[in-house]
Amino acid sequence: MRYKSLRNILLLLSILLLIGGCQNYKKLQFQSYAIEKIDNISFGKGSVCATLTLNVGVANPTSTTFTAKDLEATIYSGNGDPFAILTSDEKMVIPPNSEDSLKWKINTELLNPLSVLAAGGFSMENLDVENMTVDYSIVFSGGIRKRFSGKGVVLGDLIRAFKSTLPDSQSQ
Hints:
Immunoglobulin-like; 9 strands; 50% strand; single chain; alpha+beta; nine-stranded mixed beta sheet
């Protein structure tokens, strides 16, 4: 009897922690992004790899420190072929009660660079982002670990979710 009672209390506490912990993730606001620099460019057979350092504008109105990690994303072209693969081995720590621009290094592999050159270069104007899709997975931890993922998300919708602050639109 005592064992069942203890088990029920632990179960109830676990559920309350899960419910309470998940609500804090919803309060994070990803506001903008900008490519700060591109490093480690390397050319492979049929692909180009680089490390992008992004400045990500994030607001965390909670008292919890969050960590974004284990980013994995594949971008598909309009015809369904893989276009690029994005990963991150590094973590982005989001401090509590803050609104700041944080750096995050993203490893990028462009799988068909010749198609980008044929389209007139790499810019958002030359990419058909409305017909491109993304499969992604990212892990957030902040007391409780939570994986966010999506399949077939339209790239244009994802881009519009942020207020873009691309380098050429910033005041110098």
